[in-house]
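Weekly modeling sync, notes
Attendees: S.R. (lead), two postdocs, one rotation student

Agenda item 3: backlog of single-chain predictions. S.R. asked that every request posted to the team notebook include the full sequence so nobody has to chase files. The rotation student volunteered to paste the first one in as an example of the format we agreed on. Action items at the bottom.

Example entry:
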Amino acid sequence: QMRHNKIIGWENFLGFVERIQKFSPWLSRQIAKRASEWPFWPSGVQIRDWRDDQVWVQLPLSFRNSIDGEAVQGHMLLAAELTTRLLLLRYAREFPFRYRVTNSAVETHRPVDQTVDIKFSIGFEEWERIRLEMARESTARAEFAFPALLADGRLAASFTLHVAFELEKFLPA
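Predicted structure, as returned to the notebook:
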């Protein structure tokens, strides 16, 4: 008799993949394929907006992601990493590359006792610099720094992620 492992929030995840399927089948396949690698869903992170130039995720305060009524730094850092990965997944469609987060840091500025909004975007000039460096050297490095805001608009935390990029190699036909 086979037993299935129950993943917390799995129904929410499947619903999310279905919603993405409507506007990008390719993206929903990428997410479904990588779901096992992504520990974001149990933290309760929700994707609010996902455009070509910006990703907005929300981390609602819940029993699962907080201690003593305050969001755990690890869950906030996971949410920040998710925003970064989602935006880079979009960019990788036009300009194929691999990347990995080599270092990440979070600094909280006040008690995080309410929903947190994390918005991440890469400026056009910065993205062009990364692309040109990859085109020339086949590798590039970047540091992304961005804030997390509490529901009332105050600064909750600051994130810094270091990312190493590598150009995908194409095999000749």
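Discussion: group reviewed the output briefly. The first strand starts at residue 46 and ends at 50.
Action items: rotation student to repeat for the remaining queue; S.R. to check formatting next week.
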